[in-house]
Design brief:
Layout (H helix, E strand, L loop, with lengths): L2 H7 L7 E4 L3 H15 L7 E4 L2 H9 L3 E2 L8 E7 L2 E2 L5 E2 L6 H10 E9 L13 E5 L4 H10 L4 E3 L15 E5 L7 H9 L4 E4 L1 E2 L5 E5 L5 E5 L4
Parallel strand pairs: 1-2, 1-4, 2-3, 4-7, 7-13
Antiparallel strand pairs: 5-6, 6-12, 8-10, 8-11, 9-10, 13-14
Length: 226
């Protein structure tokens, strides 16, 4: 039994539109959703996947997938993260779907992220690079602008050594995060650079983070409404 996936999917009700991420943990939720739809425990579910690969899995499992250009709002998001700190700040983007994941998060009324405890960190950027999605046009100047705000990075390549191209035909620059507490200022600096499509600093998106502990229990980090 996949307790993390089951606990997350318990938050879904009949008739909901559900956003699902692009990573391995999100794929566990996708399979649990499909199992409940097949067993008639859930009805009228539509999913919005964050990547072409996730969409393919959803379709293979018989789920109803929303047209990518037509969804206006999403009831709940089930997604993963690469790294999470105690303030629920996250790094995302290891799957290269950071732009779509941001759009889906922004459209979602409730955002739940699922992580194994190995993803917890005292400081985001300790164990994961920050993915920055950039347009191919002018990529050299964009990389120089990224360097000018103190971030050093490399263009991501696939296993064959070719530049990795995302589903939206962008490139990914993986940068090392400096030790800082002012992640908001860093996010603003990246947002201001022409050529950057999106980045993986998700600082206040999570309404709840479900943490899968090694002893087989699920802890919940819930953002205060204050």
């Amino acid at each position: 039994m996949d307790l993390l996936a089951r606990t997350a999917v318990d938050e879904i009700s009949d008739g909901m539109t559900v956003g699902v991420g692009a990573g391995k943990t999100a794929s566990r939720a996708i399979r649990e959703i499909a199992a409940r739809v097949e067993s008639a425990d859930l009805h009228g579910i539509t999913v919005v996947p964050a990547s072409d690969a996730a969409e393919k899995v959803c379709l293979e499992l018989g789920l109803s997938v929303a047209e990518s250009s037509s969804f206006e709002s999403i009831d709940v998001l089930l997604d993963g993260a690469d790294e999470v700190d105690e303030k629920m700040r996250m790094i995302k983007g290891s799957r290269g779907a950071v732009a779509r994941e941001r759009i889906i998060a922004a459209a979602s009324a409730r955002r739940i992220y699922l992580v194994p405890e190995s993803k917890l960190s005292p400081r985001i950027g300790t164990n994961s690079a920050l993915a920055v999605a950039v347009m191919p046009f002018g990529v050299a100047s964009t990389r120089q602008a990224i360097l000018s705000v103190g971030l050093h990075g490399l263009l991501r390549r696939d296993l064959n050594g070719n530049l990795l191209v995302t589903d939206n035909a962008n490139l990914i620059v993986d940068v090392s995060l400096p030790a800082t507490e002012d992640y908001a200022a860093l996010a603003n600096a990246l947002d201001a650079i022409p050529g950057i499509v999106e980045h993986g600093l998700f600082l206040d998106e999570a309404d709840e983070i479900m943490v899968e502990r090694s002893e087989g229990v699920i802890d919940r980090m819930v953002r205060s409404s204050d």
